[in-house]
Design a protein that fits this description.
Cytochrome p450, binds protoporphyrin IX containing FE, alpha+beta, 16 helices, about 400 residues, five-stranded mixed sheet, single chain
Length: about 400
């Protein structure tokens, strides 16, 4: 498809809504409610794109990837990691996705990774159990997500600390709108280290397949070259640590603030799955992601010209009252409607089953069964921050040390 140049101004007739980025980072939901009610497709100068905020419109856009393209031009993600499946359309997207995906399917998660996820969670809890206090984000959720990701990717020489540091450095690159040279330097160091680790792992997997994502890409039916493997591993490291960490943190925080709901969940362990889906709906770890129009298209009452940049605000769609009654409430009994936290269409999250298992079958059940009398420490009244990515910056808790 011929590339259409990016249009970085408001579409004719689009309402222009000034949103303050600091307010959005603090709590984006009041602004989203306003946008859904008054300007469901608005040009927002501070983010340099149109925001689409209603559930049905986002679902509609996701059904038309040939119009709402993932190949956004000039994206910071492309500068940080190079071309990758998340910023490709089919057929190239499909080739990369089919090569990488098999190790993340439900059966593979259960047969290949579940046991190791559990052992790592126990090891991390062994380290803190005697302390009686911890930050569950830094001391548990982040190292768990990073170690699990190293395993699933097949990066056997990388430690959980390497993965978490690389992830942070690349995330900073992806949001380096101020073009800070130090941030680019850190991101380049991280991506260089990932290139080396992937080259080594790919060579080992070529000799001896090990069921991992890198191994799957090396042995894919449709060839994938080393640079493509490296770039896709980067994008997975960039996103595969913070989202499981954040959904763990938000869910734990929600339950610790609702002792009666927590009691119920502890009595019915099958409901951890519902806790996961409701947490991801209520505070979506990824709040917005970009698309660029390949041709003129009418949506939400406006015609967007080819090249327009649009943010699909899934965090807003997940609070849309026309789909989720009392959408601002955390409610495990709400009717089962599909949420948008994992996206939709061809780019539906490849790690959804990995994340569901590591958080709802491993992390929460072990934390709540092993740390007796778990409660929030003072100062954790409102630990959530962010709008493109949202989660607790820390989750300080105490318990009765064994
Ligand atoms: C609760 C945890 C997670 C959430 C909420 C989440 C959310 C998302 C969303 C919204 C997208 C679509 C983005 C877009 O269309 O532009 C996505 C894509 C993706 N996610 Fe996740 N993610 C999570 C965990 C993970 C994990 C653990 C991995 C790796 C094992 C992962 C790997 C990916 C990949 C590779 C893509 C791109 C898929 C494609 O382009 O076809 N995610 N994720």
């Amino acid at each position: 498809m011929t590339a259409v140049s990016a249009v970085t101004t408001a579409a004719p007739g689009a309402p222009v809504v000034d949103l303050d980025l600091a307010d959005l980072r603090h709590d984006p939901y009041p602004a989203y409610a306003e946008l859904r009610a008054r300007a469901p497709l608005a040009w927002v100068p501070s983010v340099g794109r149109h925001l689409l905020t209603r559930y049905e419109d986002i679902v509609h856009a996701e059904k038309l990837p040939e119009v709402f393209s993932s190949r956004e031009q000039g994206s910071l993600l492309l500068r940080t990691v190079g071309p990758n499946m998340l910023r490709e359309d089919d057929p190239n997207h499909r080739r990369l996705r089919s090569a990488a995906e098999p190790p993340t399917r439900p059966r593979q998660v259960r047969d290949l990774w579940a046991g190791a996820f559990e052992r790592t969670a126990h090891d991390l809890l062994d380290r803190i159990a005697g302390r009686g206090e911890a930050d569950l984000i830094a001391d548990f959720a982040e190292p768990l997500a990073a170690a699990n990701l190293a395993l699933v990717l097949g990066l056997h020489t990388a430690s959980a600390t390497d993965i978490a540091d690389w992830s942070r450095a690349m995330m900073a690159g992806n949001s380096n709108y101020a073009d800070d040279p130090d941030i680019w330097l850190r991101a380049e160091r991280a991506t260089g280290a990932i290139d080396d680790a992937v080259a080594e792992a790919a060579e080992a997997a070529r000799r001896e397949p090990d069921g991992s994502v890198i191994s799957s890409m090396v042995h894919a039916a449709e060839p994938v070259d080393l640079t493509e493997i490296q770039n896709n591993v980067k994008v997975i490291i960039g996103g595969g640590v913070n989202e499981p960490r954040d959904v763990f943190g938000v869910g734990a925080w929600a339950l610790l603030n609702r002792p009666e709901v927590l009691d119920r969940v502890l009595k019915e362990p099958a409901s951890w799955k519902r806790v996961f889906e409701e947490t991801a709906r209520w505070v979506s770890p990824i709040g917005m992601y970009p698309r660029q129009l390949t041709r003129d298209y009418e949506i939400a009452g406006l015609t967007l010209p080819a090249g327009s940049r649009v943010g699909l605000v899934i965090a807003s769609g997940n609070r849309d009252e026309s789909v989720f009654e009392r959408a601002d409430e955390f409610d495990l009994d709400r009717p089962n409607r599909p949420h948008l936290a994992f996206g939709g269409g061809p780019h539906f999250c490849m790690g959804a089953w990995v994340a569901r298992h590591e958080v709802s079958a491993v992390a929460w059940p072990l934390v709540f069964s092993r740390l007796k009398g778990l409660r929030l420490a003072a100062g954790t009244e409102s630990p959530l921050e962010g709008w493109v990515f949202r989660g607790p910056t820390a989750l300080n808790v105490t318990w009765q040390a064994a």
